[in-house]
Amino acid sequence: KLVQQKKLPQAHAAAEKDVRYAPNSADSHMMLGFLSYLTGNKTAALEEFEKARKLNPKFREQWDASVNYFTAFRAILDDKEFLKKVLPEK
Known about the structure:
This protein is 66% helix and 0% strand. The radius of gyration is 12 Å and the shape is globular. The mean pLDDT is 90. It is built from five helices and no strands. It has 90 residues and is mainly alpha-helical.
């Protein structure tokens, strides 16, 4: 809900808390990755996406679903260099 309200710093803090409580959740790491990117920390975003990839063999499907659901996340699609790191198969 915070993402849809464009309250990104608050959403990021909530996602960090989710990861602490559910460190083996690919969803939590995926969300934190997107929010880290949107709040300007690409290094942390890449780390979180890598964790999500290790936890979810269907990472690409999860990625696509997240980008399609949260319009705020679509901004990442314009960053071609970053996408090459996150989605090397692209």
